[in-house]
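Quick start: load a record and inspect it. Here is Secreted protein:
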Amino acid sequence: MANPNQNPNYFPPAELPAHPGSQPAHTYPAAEQHFNMDPATGHQPQEQYYPPPPLQPPRPQQGVTQGFEPPPQALPQRPPHAGLDVDAQAPVHSQLPTYNPADYAHGQPQHLHPPGNYAHSQQQHFQPPPQRIKQNFPEDDNPSNPVHYIRDPHKLIGYLVPFPRPVLPGVDPETIPRRFVIYTPPPPPLNKPAEGEKEAKLHKVQRKWQEEVRGAKTSTAKTASWKGVKSKATRGIDWAIGKTTSSNLDFLGRVSPGPQSDTEKDHSDNEGHDTHKTVDIEEMVLIYPPAMQLTNEQMREEFVNTMLRTKSKAQRDTVIATGLLPVTYGIDILATLIWPFGGLGEIDTVWAYSSFRGAKTARSVTKRLTSSTSAHPNHEDESNKLKLTFTHSQRIEVLRRYLDAECHKVDSKLFPHFEHSPTESDVLEAIGWAPSRDKEEKNWEDEQWEVQEVKEDLKRVFKKAASEWRKWCKLLAEKPEKAMKK
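Running the structure step on this input writes:
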């Protein structure tokens, strides 16, 4: 057997000390000796090595139990099903009673005794599903009465809605004059005439504009696209046109007849001299709430004064708008390369036309009302009389609360008191308004569009009226004499 010491690949094991306190021998691990050998001679070079640090005695281990830990206790086993009723251990779910519509016939839920494990002490009370609360009006005050809104070219229904009393420092609320806003819904959208019927130019222009506004408001095009930018511009122009008129001027614009086709014009021209009037209506019915506390003479006087104030303001606006026409159209022409949609010229044109038409209508109404109250009217005045009727209705209280809420939104300090605000649907229901059905082929989309436009008009007119009333009240607090003239 060969001597293992003569094998160059043999490395003797390191010697361990005999006891913990003794010094170990100067030996090195086998791997370290192998790497320190000279490859030529096979012997280790004689170099100086530092001895390794002495071995430390083992530290006593406290709190550690030598040996293996005992295994954890086994989990309890599920008992077998033999001899046990599994269904009896399952939780008992009570069965709810079934819904019976007969129990809610009178709006009062009955005491239900559910079957099964329910006891009499566990009776439940189920409330009926929520429903829309309808407005309650007197039985003799229904929309079929002639005091509510109707579409008659010779009879106009208007609504006198009083403004709320402002809270002004040092001013007695009873001394503030009683004023009101006059409102009537707008006419239905213009329709395209039948084939073979001529269409007036003004009628066609307004009809095309209404179609363009409808297309812009219902457009779903992206804003970054050409159609999206055009829709935004059209909606902006329509919004600016609504700002050029006052609330009373909007009413006067609906008193005078709208644009007619050439066939209707020819038919009206053949009727006689009695139809050649600025205002074709023969009777005007103004409805007010019972809490207004004004006599018919006082309301008539205030109505005429409102028409006169509106006429003077409309005449002034006509002069201003007419003078601005060259400027606005010049700006639109110069800005064609930057903004090809225009807008300033159209807005100024509508402003001038609405102001001129409103001033003319106010002058005709006041003149005909004055002739109807003269002591010695002649035959010509008899044909041009305008019958003015005042009547009260509890339904107009809905419009009064709506106006109070709008005034509170405009200035909560000046008008701090108001009740809950009705919705636009409540207001239209109160006055008995419904979409027009002039054509048989009108579909659901046309009716919804007309309802939406009337709601927006109601909101816009009452908001303008609230802003005008706030401006007048502040002028009354600063300059009472000047405010009384306006």
